Amino acid sequence: MVILTPMLNGQKNNQMVILHSCSEKTAEVAAPMASQLSSLAATAGLCLLSALAIALLAVTIYILGVVASFAVFCIREYAWRAHDRPPLLGTVFRLLKNFNRLFDEHVEYALAHRTSRILFLGHSELWTSDPQVIEHILKTSFSKYRKGDFNIQIMKDLFGDGIFATDGKKWRHQRKLASHEFSTRVLRDFSSVVFRINAAKLAEKISSAAANGTAIDMQDLLMKTTMDSIFKVGFGFELNTLSGSDEPSMQFSEAFDEANFLVFHRYVDIFWKLKRLLNIGSEAKLKRNIEIIDNFVMQLIHQKREQMKNGRDYATAKKKGREDILTRFRGCLGTPY
């Protein structure tokens, strides 16, 4: 440290600058401080490394535990293959290996055996294409079968407590409300009209592509047509993803499509819960897509609430049997808005 001090010279009457060096004193003060900072930095680094080591150890133990439990389960299932049980075709890893052609894989399973089993983590699943078994599950003994915790946990982040991810009373209540949309009168007077209009839009798009010799993605077009129709029937809202005229709708459609894929991928990803906990990989992407979906749907609900405040429009729609599912769900809460 250097101090500049002005002084008067008696003979020449000029200012002089005398430099006083304080470096030795500063060094005496700075040395202990630097030592303390180094010690603190070393301690913080050691704590960080310890935390990372503990986290890595926990993740490793979790992965080893999952693999070990799955191996034990597979050994037990392969060892106990009774004659009255459907044949065992493989494990979830077979599905993961063929995930890009999964539907073709399903067809191969069905051709090989009408009813078969696939081993998942902690349980086995029955896959069937037998009409009698399907009738037994979906009609004759429907009350005996549930989606179960395994399926609900996988779908809940995207579908919440909706009809696709619930069992019991919640499912029955929502089914009762939604079933009105599939009555003969509603299908004839409203829902079928919506589907026909969007089918005509799809036909026009395909015809235009054929006339211009343009390649099209039929799966994408069919998905958009279905999405537009379901949103009109379910929310009373024109999504217009087929025309691509509305940017927020397109963002929602893309997010919903990708979210469905990522949720479906959970069935073959035995580490999806760990990824969700750490918010990494496919689970981080799913979280972002769900945020887009939630924001879009909440905006629609607010719009619907404002529309339903107009009693005349609400009464007219109800009289004509054109209540959408969202209107009916809100109405069942005790108030139309």
From TrEMBL:
Keywords: Iron, Membrane, Metal-binding, Oxidoreductase, Transmembrane, Transmembrane helix
Single annotated GO MF: monooxygenase activity
Signal sequence segment: none
One Pfam family, short name: p450
Transmembrane segment boundaries: 42-75
InterPro entries: Cyt_P450, Cyt_P450_sf
Family assignment from sequence similarity: Belongs to the cytochrome P450 family.
Name of this chain's protein: Cytochrome P450
Annotated source species: Setaria italica (Foxtail millet)
